[in-house]
Amino acid sequence: MLLAIDAGNTNVVFALFEGRDIRARWRIATDPRRTGDEYAVWLLQLLSIEGVAKSDITKIIVGSVVPRAVHNLTVLCEKYFGVEPLISGQGKAEWGIVVDVDQPNSLGADRALNTIAAHAKYEGDLIVIDFGTATTFDAVDFTGAYKGGIIAPGINLSLDALVSNTAKLPRIAIESPESDSVIGRNTESQMLIGVFWGYVAMMEGLIARMRKEIGRPAKVIATGGLAILFDKHTDIFDAVDPDLTLEGLAILAERAAN
Questions:
Q1: Which residues are bridge partners to 5 per DSSP?
Q2: How far apart, in whole angstroms, are the C-alpha atoms of residue 114 and residue 244?
Q3: Residues 101-117 pLDDT 10s
Q4: Which of 14, 117, 135, 143 is in Cβ range 3.0-4.6 Å of 247 for a Cys bridge?
Q5: What is the three-class DSSP state of 126?
């Protein structure tokens, strides 16, 4: 059984794979100071609840955009599972894709993994939108090469900046607006309209510009926690695939084993 670990800026996601199917997944807040022992106390209990023994896990792969977290996750794998983890982008788990940008080594693990999984699952030119701490837009051509993209503040970061830098604006939750009206009748609705519909307008505008620059039809694949929320209010997504990054880890682990 494969344990895939996706260490993002906000959460670390652990997923158990049986083949390409995810049997279980758990998440914990990202903290680079969290030790391998602390991860083990939490994770071993969850595995027990799922009825999975430590010995059932024979392969582990780690993808991380937080370099300081990799050491402690490696300690977790080696000390408690007796498995030397694959580190995505390194050694046997090299990306295996063309990274056609000015600074290939600067490509984040999540974006490389999304590229690998999206190309494996969908045909043609692709634009992958990942709603994480930042929102990224990535261009993947029909050969599977990563061609570049866009990094924008995540919607929650935008909201946090708005609230923390104003004296009277309240903290609100990001949720689906009750109507399509863009004229708010109170402070909270005006904030939600500005953040939510402003974000939809940004996405639609950037996607239109990317498609024009690509010059060929390009499918739009959305991933990340808020993808489903936005999918209800725009028609720009051709597919919503919330597990794309984890599936990229599973594909990379398969390739490393061959």
A1: 14, 62
A2: 6
A3: 999 999 999 999 999 99
A4: 117
A5: strand
Q: What is the pTM of this model?
A: 0.92
Structure token pair of residue 73: 């996750």
Q: Say which amino acid occupies 253.
A: A
117 in Cβ contact with 248 (< 8 Å): yes
Q: Which two tokens stand for residue 163?
A: 């609230």
Neighbours of 100 (CB within 10 A): 13
Angle value at C-alpha 88, between 38 and 3, nearest 5 degrees = 50
CB 253 within 8 A of CB 86: yes
Integer CA distances (angstroms), 157 to 128, 135, 174, 234, 254, in order: 20, 10, 11, 21, 35
- In this structure, which amino acid lies at residue 223? T
Which of 250, 21, 255, 13 minimizes the C-alpha distance to 117?
250
Task: Count CB atoms within 10 A of the CB of residue 203.
Answer: 21
Query: Which sequence positions are flagged as catalytic?
Result: 110
Strand arrangement of the beta sheet that strand 146-153 belongs to = 146-153, 134-140, 125-131, 218-224, 239-240
State the virtual CA torsion across 24, 4, 13, 206 in degrees, nearest 10: -110
Give the DSSP letter of residue 132: S
Q: Are 91 and 74 within 8 A, CB to CB?
A: no
